[in-house]
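Technical annex B. To support the medicinal chemistry partners, we prepared a structural model of the target in complex with 2-phosphoglycolic acid, based solely on the information shown next.
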Amino acid sequence: MRRPYIAGNWKMWGTRAQAAEYCDRLLELLPDEGRRPADVGVCVPFTALDVCVERLRGSGVVVAAQNMHFAANGAYTGEVSPAMLTELHVMGVVLGHSERREYYCEQDRALQEKVAAALAAGLQPILCVGETEEEREHGKTERKLRHQVQEGLEKVDRERLADVVIAYEPVWAIGTGRVATPEQAQEAISFVRALVGDRSRDAEERVRVLYGGSVKPDNAAEILAQPDVDGALVGGASLDPEDFARIVAAAAS
Ligand code: PGA
């Protein structure tokens, strides 16, 4: 019932020239839209957004940004508003990635404004949540996820909850090569789904919850086969179009 979603997070990779080359190669590798086992998206730097939108037009591949301010405009030097993204025909935005939380003091309070502002602007938010290694070791994983999910979705109306994509990304698995076991991913993601269910039973069934953290072509299939795992947010492995296309193919299993 829930269609898988495989999103590539380029992080700070991709000049405009690299982005154009990447998109052309990716389209050569992916099956046509109607035969794809999953929705596919690329989350790219602001400066590459319009290039990707143009190269991927008509392909069904979604282009998303990696951050956004919630205000329409104002004295926020260096920030980008929802309308600045939709003007470029960007379809989505990653919000609350752990790197933004850690290095740029992204707070749950601002995130709840961002998630609501993205939906209001017609952008699909990908809200990232996840525990640190220390939190997992101290048995605080569920407490952390409950806090992040409840805060992040606080300003979203019940009818729109299922329009948010949630990415469960344990911080200890991001960029480390230490992928969560399929059981760990399933357990955390079913917990996240149940948290959405506390707000709306219907949204619980429909909301897509992705796994992220060291997803590679050779470990994707067993993670994606878990019943509550609806796709993947892929960092490092998404920078190689071949590897990324193999991860998309793994969603068929
Ligand atoms: P990774 O990154 O796949 O390189 O671990 C995932 C992410 O940060 O979204």
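Notes passed to the chemistry partners:
The first strand starts at residue 5 and ends at 9.
The domain at 5-250 is CATH 3.20.20.70 (TIM Barrel).
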